[in-house]
Amino acid sequence: MIEIKENEPLTQHTTFRIGGPAKYFCSVSNSEELQEAIVWANKKNIEYKVIGGGSNLLVSDSGYDGLVIKYFGGKIEIVGETLMAMAGAPLALVMNESLKAGLAGLEWAVGIPGTIGGAVCNNAGAYGGEVSQNFLEAEFLQEEKVKTLTVKDLDFGYRSSGLKEGKIKGVILLVKLGLRQASTEQMAEIKESVKRNLADRVSKASEGGSVGSTFRNFVMSEEEINKFKEKFPQLPDQFVGYRKVPAAWLIDECGLKGKKIGGAMVSETHAGKITNVGGATAEDVIMLISIVKQKVRSKFSLQLIEEMEYLGF
Fold first, then answer.
1. Any idea what the CATH number is for the domain that residue 150 is in?
2. Which domain covers residue 255, as residue numbers?
3. For the segment 69-108, what is each residue's pLDDT rounded down to a tens digit?
4. Annotated catalytic, 17?
5. Which of 21, 143, 206, 285 could form a disulfide with 63 if both were Cys (CB 3.0 to 4.6 A apart)?
6. DSSP character string of 250-282
7. Of these residues, 17, 27, 31, 159, which one is catalytic?
8. Is residue 31 annotated as part of the catalytic site, yes or no?
């Protein structure tokens, strides 16, 4: 039986630690409880939002006038080279379980917070990998009916999916991922890579609460990246090789590291992150985002797009 709370502060349920209360709130740990919460909201004709770790979310200062369902936890099962995880399973745990089973394919997920369901919705990725490379299918709740979602259905893009873009309405219940068996030697190399990447993440850790990378990087064609390099020769060659222009590099080039509005600041360790260094409001963050986007657009003629979702605006 789920417990519905009223006027629950959402600052303690997001990594940004920003935002007003949810009019209604409940925590669930399995798909049955999740469905029960959704039925409750539908019967009362109340809007609802399912969140996981709240690691990619900016909540309005006025909060959310609906039901926030926090889905965190759930079983993970591995059969052969297929991993099945309830949508609320933490992504870090999913990765660790795959490594324990000697399976490769999820090592890119080291240090990424949140749940596997949220990772699918956002096509989360890092270090050259992303969810769409491993995704097989998902069980999906739509209008209180369970359906199957395929790769084609989700229409993955860079840090996006049909779910995130609102092309598909519903909630992921279970995710199936395809991995590959690694040899002992390969697994030793993978584990060393995981250690290095985790150390890299720690070295770039935010000064306060954040959603991680606030903006999407720019993925370009070979022709586009070469033209950009001609116009801006200071772009490091490694980015040309990746055909990617990091948002953090653009923002740093604009001299915006350390820029503050109220309690919101462009991180001094990673310019692609906006952090809550103490008492930041959603309005502070939005104003700072606006300044950053304007400066980058003026200097590079590129329009930054936020990775995070907005709730209650």
1. 3.30.465.10
2. 208-311
3. 999 888 999 999 999 999 999 999 999 999 999 999 999 9
4. no
5. 21
6. HHHHTT-TT-EETTEEE-SS-TT-EEE-SS--H
7. 159
8. no
